[in-house]
């Protein structure tokens, strides 16, 4: 289930709003909220707009829309489709209510009043059966949310200890395609050179005979 939610401005990680968590939840998620801050600091215009980052028994799902990052910490067993449906609902309501003010605020948690909508929506998504029915009834799952296999998944340990950046994640598939194309061209060139080495002597002899015959019968 959805345990906690944080909303920040993507360009500078300024906190805009957050769910009001009880003391027990705050203690249980202390480490993961620290990890969320690491993610916020590594945001850039090139990162994946939707990503799931696994960390122990929880998964941190984030969605970036209009310079705002919506991140929720959910139990690892909670369906990704529902997690991103929840974040999608938050992003639409937040854009409608505060969108024009996002780039101008200077103090943290300027939109703390958004907690009311977050709490109401989070309760709707606590039970997966209720959430599935709501999402289906409201028809708010678009193609991107339906195909959760296209949402990148990362491991928090890799992100923290191997120094992988979120930028690196977004460029990984592009780099792989580029390398694949490079090797394909190299293979074609090698095959062409091998064909030349195989047939060049035959071609040279044929050309020589042709020239002799041409000179003789001219």
UniProtKB/TrEMBL annotation:
InterPro entries: Longin-like_dom_sf, Longin_dom, Sec22, V_SNARE_CC. Residues 6-118 form the Longin domain. Its main location: endoplasmic reticulum. Residues 137-197 form the V-SNARE coiled-coil homology domain. One of its GO terms (biological process) is retrograde vesicle-mediated transport, Golgi to endoplasmic reticulum. Keywords: Coiled coil, Endoplasmic reticulum, ER-Golgi transport, Golgi apparatus, Membrane, Protein transport, Transmembrane, Transmembrane helix, Transport. GO terms for molecular function: SNAP receptor activity. It is found in: Endoplasmic reticulum membrane; Golgi apparatus membrane. It is a single-pass type IV membrane protein. PROSITE patterns: LONGIN, V_SNARE. One of its GO terms (cellular component) is Golgi membrane. Belongs to the synaptobrevin family. This is Protein transport protein SEC22.
């Amino acid at each position: 289930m959805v345990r906690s939610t944080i909303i920040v401005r993507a360009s500078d990680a300024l906190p805009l709003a957050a769910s009001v968590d009880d003391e027990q939840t705050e203690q249980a998620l202390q480490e993961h909220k620290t990890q969320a801050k690491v993610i916020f600091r590594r945001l850039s215009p090139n990162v994946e707009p939707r990503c799931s980052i696994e960390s122990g028994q929880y998964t941190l799902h984030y969605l970036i829309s209009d310079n705002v990052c919506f991140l929720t910490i959910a139990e690892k067993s909670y369906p990704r489709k529902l997690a991103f449906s929840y974040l999608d609902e938050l992003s639409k309501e937040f854009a409608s209510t505060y969108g024009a003010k996002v780039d101008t605020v200077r103090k943290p948690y300027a939109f703390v009043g958004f907690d009311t909508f977050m709490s109401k929506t989070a309760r709707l998504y606590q039970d997966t059966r209720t959430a599935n029915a709501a999402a289906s009834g409201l028809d708010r799952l678009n193609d991107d949310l339906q195909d959760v296999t296209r949402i990148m998944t990362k491991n928090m340990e890799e992100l923290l200890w191997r120094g992988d950046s979120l930028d690196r994640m977004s460029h990984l598939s592009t780099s792989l395609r580029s390398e694949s194309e490079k090797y394909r061209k190299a293979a074609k060139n090698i095959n062409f050179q091998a064909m030349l080495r195989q047939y060049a002597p035959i071609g040279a002899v044929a050309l020589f005979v042709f020239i002799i015959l041409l000179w003789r019968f001219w």
